[in-house]
Amino acid sequence: MEVPIVITEVAIFTALPGKDDQLGHAILQGLDIVRQHSECITAHATRCIEQPGRYMVNIVWTSLEAHTVDFRGGPLFPQWRGYIDGLIEGSAEIFHYQPF
User: Fold this and answer.
1) Which of 97, 93, 12 lies closest to 51, judged by CA?
2) Rounded Cα–Cα distance for residues 53 and 1 (Å)
3) What are the tens digits of pLDDT across the range 10-50?
4) I need a labelling partner for 85 at 20 to 30 A (CA). Which of 6, 18, 22, 32 fits?
């Protein structure tokens, strides 16, 4: 039996000054939207200890395309972004990882 290769999306978000806690709550609410996507296996967020305004979001997808094409091109993406827009500084740093 072949094991499917999953992709982990890692995104780093930095809050606008004074919006640290607000961004954290928005990310948690937004992840409820992300988890609704049929190709999302799991999603969670962690907060940086040294820089409390930085959050790391980890989402495991069934494939790269599940994230970059299906999710980003679908109706859930604007809902997810609606929670965090106006709270982040610059753009998120986003990378995709696979098992090796």
Assistant:
1) 12
2) 43
3) 999 999 999 999 999 999 999 999 999 999 999 999 999 99
4) 6
| Listed residue (63, 96, 77) closest to 30, CA to CA | 77
Find the CATH number of the domain harbouring 52. Answer: 3.30.70.100
What's the rounded Cα separation, in Å, for the pair 73 and 31?
A: 17
Whether residue 97 is contained in a domain is answered as no
pLDDT at 5: 84
Q: Does 1 score more than 70 pLDDT?
A: no
Domain count of the fold of the chain: 1
Handedness of CA 62, 68, 69, 72 (dihedral sign): positive
CB 42 within 8 A of CB 88: no
